[in-house]
Amino acid sequence: MALIHGGQLQKVAAAFNIPESNWLDLSTGIAPYSYPIPDIPTSLWQQLPQPNEQLTIAAQHYYQAQQLLVTNGSQAVIKALPSLWRQQCSVNSIVYLPLHGYKEHQQAWVNAGYTVAHYHEQLPELAQLTPHCVLVVINPNNPTGKLFNRDELTDYQLKIDKLGGLLVLDEAFMDVITPTQSLSSTLTAQSTLILRSFGKFFGLAGIRIGFVVANQHWLKLLNETLGPWQVNGPAQYIAQHALQNISWQQQQQSNLINDSQQLGKLLFECFAHDSTISIKGTTLFQTVTFSSNTVAPLIYQALCQRGIYVRLTDNQQALRFGIPCPEQLPRLGQTLKKILKSCR
Ligand SMILES: Cc1ncc(COP(=O)(O)O)c(C=O)c1O
Q1: What is the pLDDT of residue 80?
Q2: Quick one: which of 169, 201, 222, 259 could link to 175 by a disulfide (CB 3.0–4.6 Å)?
Q3: Rounded to whole angstroms, what are the CA distances from 137 to 13, 40, 53, 141, 278?
Q4: Is the minimum distance from the CB of 74 to ligand 1 under 6 angstroms?
Q5: 42-244: what fold?
Q6: What tens digit of pLDDT does each residue of 262-299 get?
């Protein structure tokens, strides 16, 4: 069954009968500013994609990792992993997953017949982990924003290595965390895979490119499974330039920090009167969590009726707001305040 994600504006616009061009779409955690597309040599459109050494070097530098593989986004790897793990380990592993988090992980493991155990805010105790288990950590979490630090995750790496298990670190939103808590520069374990999404921080989710950091055994396995021509040549070219462009990255960081602070301030003004409501996130999204699952759907509907699309979480208890540009913020603020006034 296809899962619901943000970014389905076409469908939502049709459901609320508002033309797509009239919407303020804050339904994803994709940066509102995208890396400017450079002039792409015609040959890259004409030829089949070839490995791009310059891209690999740029990615090794950006992610501070020597061993990585270019993929067409983390999603492809998430889907491929359970059957690859089945080939590596014939025992029926328990898969530990965050209760709240990008649900494609869960769907992939459940579809492959694995037994899933959820953890809440904290990782399962080290002593609780079972032989050959799989632990999936979305760091920082989407949508909760929960961040685990490197030291804690290093302990899990070592333990899972000893247990003959697999640690999957999904660092889709790690680019905006300073100081970084990524394990990509210090990956030592045999059994850790780190997924890095390109599209979110660089605002180019549509070009479908991402990276996996892992040991050579896993990279070879993934490369063979995903097959040739994974990533089109123009996407490789754009990513190469974006990963090399440090001054653009610094500007992007600074814009996102500023805009997410403005959003945080607005959400605080709107919701701080109620101490049961929490506001957490990263500089790519802010999530407002309510104490029950009755309020968020009402606000979601009211926002949609006014052409503002945010993400209502699967448990219906929270609204995740993507980062609006400064010129979009007043529309969000006025609309949200009007809705909340009419609710009181
Ligand atoms: C936590 C998380 N991981 C992975 C993905 C997939 O990203 P990609 O565009 O790299 O396939 C998403 C997409 O929203 C996500 O939220």
Answers
A1: 96
A2: 201
A3: 33, 36, 30, 8, 22
A4: yes
A5: Aspartate Aminotransferase; domain 2 (3.40.640)
A6: 999 999 999 988 899 999 999 999 999 999 999 999 99
Sheet holding 68-71, edge to edge: 68-71, 210-213, 192-197, 166-170, 134-138, 94-98, 115-119
* Residue with CA at minimum distance from ligand 1 atom 3: 172
Contact 24, 309 (CB under 8 A): yes
Question: What pLDDT is attached to residue 189?
Answer: 73
According to the model, what pLDDT value does residue 239 have? 98
Using 50 as the pLDDT threshold, list the residues of the chain that sit under it: none
Would you state the pLDDT for residue 318?
97
Give strand pairing partners of 135: 96, 167
pLDDT at 273: 85
* CATH 3.40.640.10 segments of the chain: 42-244
Tally of CA atoms within 13 A in the half-sphere of 196 that contains its CB:
28
Residue 98, ligand 1, Cβ within 6 A: no
Which residue among 28, 79, 102 has the greatest number of ligand 1 atoms within 8 angstroms of its CB, and so is best to mutate?
102
Rounded to two decimals, what is the model's pTM? 0.97
Structure tokens at 216: 């050579």
Q: 9-34+248-343: which CATH architecture?
A: Alpha-Beta Complex (3.90)
Residue 100 and residue 244 in contact, taking contact as beta carbons nearer than 8 Å: no
**205 CB near ligand 1 (under 6 Å):** yes
For residues 30 and 309, the answer to whether their CB atoms sit within 8 Å is no
